[in-house]
Amino acid sequence: MTEFEVIASGLLFPEGPIVMADGSVLFVEIARGTLSRAWPDGTVEVVAETGGGPNGAAIGPDGKAYICNNGGFEWHEVNGALLPGLTPPDYTGGSIQRVDLANGAVETLYTHCGEVPLKGPNDIVFDAHGGFWFTDNGKRYARHEDVGAVYYARCDGSYISEQVYPCSHANGIGLSPDGGTLYVSETMVGRVWHYRVTAPGVVEVPAGLLNPDALLYGAPGFELYDSMAIEANGNVCVAALATGGIRVISPEGRSVDLVETGDPATTNIAFGGEDMQTAWITLSGAGQLVKMRWPRPGQRLNFNA
């Protein structure tokens, strides 16, 4: 297992880490309903109360944090780990929220795409044009579940478009360093897809449900994919649930590495540091934010200095 340093513990299913220039790391605590911040000394503070189920997070061109809110889960303790379950009775829908980091004010930007309600927004990435891509994982019920999708939206609340549908259990999302390829992970089927970006907010989706052209990588055995980050060389680093680690996949679709963490609910990775070779990883089952030295530099995200 890889050696890492525990930065913060006792967290309530952390995800969506954002490495900030001041050395702190923003992240969501889904079961707590907050956007939180960890400082290098391990101090954790609540930045904003989002309610529901804050999931993916990213810094936009206005310096504010944009949150994918999945609407919440039922929670269960399994072998000492806090894990999400079905849709809770108080669920009212999913949304995209914006948080002012200066005062913690939370506003809702989107709850629908046209007439289609957002079900369980999950992960988010900004492109160089100031718009953002996000996944909707859907919600699970005792006898049925939603079909996921991928959307593109503007950060002023004026425009949202569905770009990939269907996309079962759409979870992680990322852009290649040149912005020309969109990567999307599907959780339960253990796959990573890639789509060519043809214009700002538009991707080319190969026709036909049985068309494999967009498939980048399929998991070996029972490996479920969560959120992702991209290396500067274009490798896709996707959190591998069940296996417990980060699967590194080349742009050509080859497995480059598996960095094991020991937590089967490893959910997310973000890069930072002067040389972009420090990785912050959320071990959500253990309730920890950890960091480690990464063998290669990560990609610098748009609008996050």
Assigned CATH architecture: 6 Propeller
Shape: globular
Under CATH, the homologous superfamily reads TolB, C-terminal domain
The major sheet is characterized as: 5 strands, antiparallel
Please indicate the count of domains: 1
CATH top level? Mainly Beta
Class from helix and strand fractions: mainly beta
Average pLDDT across residues? 96
What is the CATH T-level topology? Answer: Neuraminidase
Distance between the termini: 31 Å
| Whole-angstrom Rg | 17 Å
What is the total tally of β strands? 29
**What share of residues are in beta strands?**
over 45%
In the predicted model, the low-confidence regions spanning at least 5 consecutive residues are: none
Helix content: under 10%
Query: Helices and strands, in N-to-C order?
Result: EEEEEEEEEEEEEEEEEEEEEEEEEEEEE
Counting DSSP H or I runs of 4 or more residues, the number of helices is 0
Describe the SSE topology:
Elements: E1 5-8, E2 14-19, E3 25-29, E4 34-38, E5 44-49, E6 54-59, E7 65-69, E8 75-78, E9 81-84, E10 95-99, E11 106-110, E12 112-113, E13 116-117, E14 121-126, E15 131-136, E16 149-154, E17 160-164, E18 170-175, E19 181-186, E20 191-199, E21 202-204, E22 215-218, E23 224-230, E24 236-241, E25 245-249, E26 255-260, E27 266-272, E28 278-283, E29 288-293
Antiparallel strand pairs: 1-29, 2-3, 3-4, 4-5, 6-7, 7-10, 8-9, 10-11, 12-13, 14-15, 15-16, 16-17, 18-19, 19-20, 20-21, 20-22, 23-24, 24-25, 25-26, 27-28, 28-29
